[in-house]
């Protein structure tokens, strides 16, 4: 789900890795399903008591909308109400009564985002059901709120809280003299919020692996608080003495962990790798994959890694638009954290609790403020803006989804 989606286009060419070919439906930019036809379904990926569709819908604590209600709420899905497009379909702006949740007139009620399944799209009923399974029960400040759904004939829709600032992707990569780039402090605030969302999922009694962490799935409220959206590819984590779950390789090119691509073995450390790529995007202002960049720079991780290992060269990759807004030692520590997250060895990656702690220390460290020096290549424009992290909540205080077997 997303308030702002990039168009997703199917392609027939396979995705090649160093260990072979993975049959896939590839999508331009950052929407790709990497379907591993060779990976086998293992017992670790099948919970002992999978939930049926009826059980998921009945226990979701969500409003069941009629299709006519959502037609009225979106003014008959008018084109000028479209907020974005994605693999699932179109997202429309709508209005519902805050108390009754009935369709209402624009400007006089609660604004919502209504996502409508495109019958010809590459995502379908399983993704729709997965969204309900997880967001129907999960509650956390850094997860987008799912309000309800519609299941009527062939219609599949989802109703979310409206996120006024749209996606992190749009803020980070848009260019233009009229557009003010995200400041260093806002980037760090968003990075911390997104990290807390992942940490919450990973710390669940029934662990949840997000599997599609990227900037387009990080939505922002009016205060730039980050919330994770689009749980269509999420999976329950391994149980018992299992170290991983075996799945079809699905996700987005440029963000998927190398060991997941080559084996189909999914763990929480797969999400950590994806987080490292996003943190690198936040620091550099560059997309994970961009074929418009010069030869040798198409893949952000491959291009940036040599610079991240050298303190003197790190500043060559940091977004020039935020020069003067950060302390040099904080930028170095943030870059080192990104480098740890994208380690080829998943055992060398930190867990998301450690990522959150490291980022919050960067935000609040008085020692850094006293001892840090500004980037020598930039002109100082005053001290970095302070940005208080959101109030930490214990993950155990929120309800957890039951195990499900929605994906192979």
Brief account:
Residues 35-45 have a biased composition (Low complexity). This protein is α+β, with helices and mostly antiparallel strands and 408 residues long.
Describe the overall structure.
The structure is a single chain. The chain has 408 residues and is α+β, with helices and mostly antiparallel strands. The chain folds into two domains: 10-161, Phosphorylase Kinase, domain 1 (2-Layer Sandwich), CATH 3.30.200; 168-397, Transferase(Phosphotransferase) domain 1 (Transferase(Phosphotransferase), domain 1, Orthogonal Bundle), CATH 1.10.510. Helix content is 28%, strand content 15%. The chain contains eleven helices and 16 strands. It has helices at 53-58, 67-73, 125-135, 168-173, 184-202, 258-263, 268-284, 300-308, 328-341, 352-364, 366-371; strands at 10-11, 15-17, 20-22, 26-27, 63-64, 82-85, 89-96, 110-117, 146-152, 155-161, 208-209, 218-220, 226-228, 235-236, 245-246, 265-266. The strands form six sheets. The chain has a six-stranded mixed beta sheet, with helices on both faces. Strand 2 (15-17) and strand 3 form a beta hairpin. The radius of gyration is 21 Å and the shape is globular. The chain starts with 9 loop residues before the first strand and ends in a 37-residue tail after the last helix.
């Amino acid at each position: 789900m997303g308030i702002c989606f990039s168009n997703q286009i199917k392609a027939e060419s396979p995705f090649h890795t160093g260990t072979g070919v993975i049959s896939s439906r590839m999508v331009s930019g950052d929407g790709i399903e990497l379907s591993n036809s060779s990976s086998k379904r293992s017992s670790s990926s099948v919970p002992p008591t999978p939930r049926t569709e009826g059980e998921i819908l009945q226990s979701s604590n969500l409003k069941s909308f009629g299709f006519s209600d959502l037609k009225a709420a979106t003014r008959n899905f008018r084109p000028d109400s479209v907020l974005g497009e994605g693999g699932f379909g179109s997202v429309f702006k709508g209005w519902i009564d805050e108390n009754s949740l009935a369709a209402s007139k624009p400007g006089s009620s609660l604004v919502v985002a209504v996502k409508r399944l495109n019958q010809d799209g590459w995502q379908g009923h399983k993704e729709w059901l997965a969204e309900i399974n997880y967001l129907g029960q999960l509650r956390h400040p850094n997860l987008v709120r799912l309000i309800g759904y519609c299941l009527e004939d062939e219609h599949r829709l989802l109703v979310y809280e409206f996120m006024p600032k749209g996606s992190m992707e749009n803020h980070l990569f848009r260019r233009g003299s009229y557009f003010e780039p995200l400041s260093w402090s806002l980037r760090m605030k968003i990075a911390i919020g997104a990290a807390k969302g992942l940490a919450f999922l990973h710390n669940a009694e029934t662990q949840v692996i997000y599997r599609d962490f990227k900037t387009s799935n990080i939505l922002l409220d009016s205060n730039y608080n980050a919330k994770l959206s689009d749980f269509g590819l999420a999976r329950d984590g391994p149980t018992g003495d299992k170290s991983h779950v075996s799945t079809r390789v699905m996700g987005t090119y440029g963000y998927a962990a190398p060991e997941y691509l080559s084996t189909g073995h999914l763990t929480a450390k797969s999400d950590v790798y994806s987080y490292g790529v996003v943190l690198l995007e936040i620091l550099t202002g560059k997309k994970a994959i961009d074929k418009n960049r010069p030869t040798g720079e198409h893949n952000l991780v491959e291009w940036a890694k040599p610079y991240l290992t050298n303190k003197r060269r790190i500043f060559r990759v940091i977004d020039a638009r935020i020069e003067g807004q950060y302390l040099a030692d904080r930028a170095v520590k943030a870059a080192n954290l990104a480098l740890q997250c994208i380690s080829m060895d998943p055992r060398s990656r930190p867990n998301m609790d450690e990522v959150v702690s490291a980022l919050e220390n960067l935000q609040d460290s008085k020692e850094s403020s006293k001892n840090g020096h500004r980037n020598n290549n930039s002109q100082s424009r005053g001290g970095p803006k302070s940005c208080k992290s959101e109030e930490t909540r214990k993950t155990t205080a929120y309800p957890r989804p039951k195990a499900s077997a929605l994906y192979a």
